[in-house]
Amino acid sequence: MTTPAGAAQVKSPRKTLLIVYHTHTGGTLQMARAAADGAAREPAIDVRLLHAAQAGPGDVLAADGMIFATPENLAAMSGLLKDFFDRSYYAVLDRINGRPYTCLVCAGSDGSNAARQIERICAGWRLRLIADALIVCTRAQTPEDILRDKRIDPPDLERCTDLGAAFGAGLAMGIY
Ligand SMILES: Cc1cc2nc3c(=O)[nH]c(=O)nc-3n(C[C@H](O)[C@H](O)[C@H](O)COP(=O)(O)O)c2cc1C
């Protein structure tokens, strides 16, 4: 469709989705990449996929929405994701109220406590949870399985892609 002569062109503003992740054996990164691919289907969305050690308060402030992705280690989020929150928390407090977020957890058999920890921190930030934490269990229980590189099953990756796509679409439409 062409724009009528003289009519101002209305440009929809671009939105940024920040995905901060950490991984030991690759599972969380596959989940985060799948979510990033889903969100990137939306042309108005810029996706920034950052390792937790590379991310900080400036990235949080610049983001319109966030996904935090972590393995569950010792019934907690991974240490490097916690370090990201520790470095960022007070620098952005009260400056990101109401922004949407969700989280991805790659766990051996549980994952709920890592999700709970992230949700508690994000409640302090007054972020808005737009979808329940997506937890994928790799069924790694023995030391050998836990230390082995992970391959996330395609149906689980599809769930991550769908979540990213829904997040991206919601951000672009201004629903979130
Ligand atoms: C030190 C350590 C502690 C772990 N603790 C838990 C745990 O508390 N609950 C759980 O479900 N899985 C636990 N796991 C298993 C990992 O969550 C699982 O291997 C997951 O797939 C790792 O994700 P990643 O590939 O992104 O590192 C642990 C793994 C390691 C290395």
What's this model, at a glance?
By secondary structure, this protein is α/β, with parallel strands linked by helices. It has helices at residues 27-39, 57-61, 79-92, 112-124, 143-147, 154-173; strands spanning 15-21, 45-51, 65-73, 76-77, 100-107, 128-129, 134-137. Strands 1, 2, 3, 4, 5, 6 and 7 form a 7-stranded mixed β-sheet that branches.
Write the layout of secondary structure elements.
Blueprint lengths: L14 E7 L5 H13 L5 E7 L5 H5 L3 E9 L2 E2 L1 H14 L7 E8 L4 H13 L3 E2 L4 E4 L5 H5 L6 H20 L3
Parallel strand pairs: 1-2, 1-3, 3-5, 5-6, 5-7
Antiparallel strand pairs: 3-4
Helix pairs in contact: 1-6
The structure holds flavin mononucleotide (FMN).
